[in-house]
Fold this sequence. Notes:
elongated, 16 helices, alpha/beta, 5-stranded parallel β-sheet, 5-stranded antiparallel β-sheet
Amino acid sequence: xxxxxxxxxxxxxxxxxxxxxxxxxxxxxxxxxxxxxxxxxxxxxxxxxxxxxxxxxxxxxxxxxxxxxxxxxxxxxxxxxxxxxxxxxxxxxxxxxxxxxxxxxxxxxxxxxxxxxxxxxxxxxxxxxxxxxxxxxxxxxxxxxxxxxxxxxxxxxxxxxxxxxxxxxxxxxxxxxxxxxxxxxxxxxxxxxxxxxxxxxxxxxxxxxxxxxxxxxxxxxxxxxxxxxxxxxxxxxxxxxxxxxxxxxxxxxxxxxxxxxxxxxxxxxxxxxxxxxxxxxxxxxxxxxxxxxxxxxxxxxxxxxxxxxxxxxxxxxxxxxxxxxxxxxxxxxxxxxxxxxxxxxxxxxxxxxxxxxxxxxxxxxxxxxxxxxxxxxxxxxxxxxxxxxxxxxxxxxxxxxxxxxxxxxxxxxxxxxxxxxxxxxxxxxxxxxxxxxxxxxxxxxxxxxxxxxxxxxxxxxxxxxxxxxxxxxxxxxxxxxxxxxxxxxxxxxxxxxxxxxxxxxxxxxxxxxxxxxxxx
Length: 520
């Protein structure tokens, strides 16, 4: 129901309005006042106020500032077709100025005006609430967020983490300042610490805005590195394009990899006959790897924790938003947040793959596994992708390949290999699976007719976060699938090999484990 305060001294107009409500079954609760004095005595809150211009004890101008001070919309309904009165009313906060006609046709238009004004007021309240909620969320996340319009040079938004990551000077981020994109970014890149002036972080005036997307890592003096991603926010024709950038300080991770690289160089330079020095360096490497794993896990947790409420709330905000442009902006922000969340989960997955300490612990969660059954279940998860790409799946694994193994590990190994085969195989290609048990080993192979691998790829493909060239720009993957597979194979005393005759000639992955099916 809509609560309306009707300030009108003419009983005929009062009755006409009430009859219109009854006739059209309008959802109005109407409170009527016949003078300014009577209106001032009303203490109730209203959704909307209708008021005549001239009243027995004054005009609407005498009371209008009091009526609109709490944001209640006011419509002036009068017989006075006076432009000056209308302008004066609108300046004091009235939402509309309607003229009464003798036949009272205005009563038919009034519900439409009321509905529009109420809807606009509700939308404005919701917009302010969503804006406040978005700002409160954006200010808590640790990665930098930056939105700007390249054509207008307008900086739409940046969060506190952006200022911290880039150490933006105070004079460029003073509250209330209208700094442009060129001024802000020029102040950042103009300092001595910025080295990557040739790196394209943002589009320029010659950029095709419909195609631009950029990502990379910026190195600053003092061993500071910042990873970034810039993408276009979807927009309608005629609207100035907007771009959103995400920045993450990856200095600790980069320094860890750099330190590891330096220690490896030192290790190679040692004389192999100096066992004591080799053992000392080995202990240092193991400690560094342990710290690296701990750091990866910590970074994964630090990334995931603030992103969890963000990912949970952004779809709700987007679905509640009626403005399509804002929905698209929220979708872009959600997509970026989910990509970073996925990277955090991937980092945790690598960090948590730690070998157990004793053979008894290794066998504690083993059970009887049927290789063909598990292969079929894994393939069934990807049936929509298989049908979409019209792939041919051939599984010639016998039904009697049964052995003791950890089912979770076996499913994860097969899932990663099958997923890669489907992802890198072109439409109407084929994927083959086979397996068996020899006298002293259990083995299986997965081959495809996909994009194939170079000799360099085969030497690096099991490294953490390594991606072949065709997937390097795909933010949906993080290059850890085969790294996880190799870790799981090694944890179970297995061996993995990859074969490919070159680009476009497919790939074949083969895995073997010690054991047999005589005593599963």
